[in-house]
């Protein structure tokens, strides 16, 4: 059963998601299209990159991951296919695949044929490409191998003495603040916005509304508020600096 996942910032108000799925099914009626999310903050490429990083390996090998957060649509930015050891990724060359690219990945610039809308490459380029790949076609038949693609680094964590400096890299639907500090690092607390927050085992260990730090399912520490939104409590945003105390 061919699987295509679909991640975008299209939301659920308009017809964009349906149009993309329709084009996929025209190319491969046997494909199963699974929505990861369409509620990425509009134009937030780095948040989309983190979502792709966090979810792609939950799917069987040979899954095609279609990702469209594309503020540069219609410009000279390239449409690309990323071929990794187990997965294929389709989307714009704007860094959205930065966190899944490895030294063995191969990247192809998609050959564009036919009439293409300058505002809807998801429908006219990426959807048909994902559908064709899901049938088993190889990337070299659809594009040209390139080496000049965009890749940004995962935000660095720095250690100074017993302090680990990091930042907020993603905010989820519940208002939990996902940091770039790996859970393999033993920490006792986090300081953010002049607040010191203790590490707990789970959300329920905090009092109602209390800020806590827990080991998140993505492999990074996250700041949460039990039965509340840490984002709202701290007026937080991605990129905010945090300092963790080593345990």
| The CATH fourth-level homologous superfamily of the largest domain | S-adenosyl-l-methionine hydroxide adenosyltransferase, N-terminal
Low-confidence stretches: none
Structural shape? elongated
What is the CATH domain class of the largest domain?
A: Alpha Beta
Secondary-structure element series: EHEHEEEEHEEEEEEEEHE
Query: Count of helical segments?
Result: 4
Structural category is alpha+beta
Short précis:
The chain has 247 residues and is α+β, with helices and mostly antiparallel strands. It is built from four helices and 15 strands. The strands form two sheets. Strands 8, 9, 10, 11, 12, 13, 14 and 15 form an eight-stranded antiparallel beta sheet that branches.
Give an overview in words.
The chain is an alpha+beta fold and 247 residues long. It has two domains: 3-146, S-adenosyl-l-methionine hydroxide adenosyltransferase, N-terminal (Rossmann fold), CATH 3.40.50.10790; 158-246, Bacterial fluorinating enzyme like (Elongation Factor Tu (Ef-tu), domain 3, Beta Barrel), CATH 2.40.30.90. It has four helices and 15 strands. α1 (16-27) links the parallel β1 (3-8) and β2 (32-37). α1 (16-27) runs parallel beside α3. It comes from candidate division WOR_3 bacterium SM23_60. Belongs to the SAM hydrolase / SAM-dependent halogenase family. Pfam families: SAM_HAT_C, SAM_HAT_N.
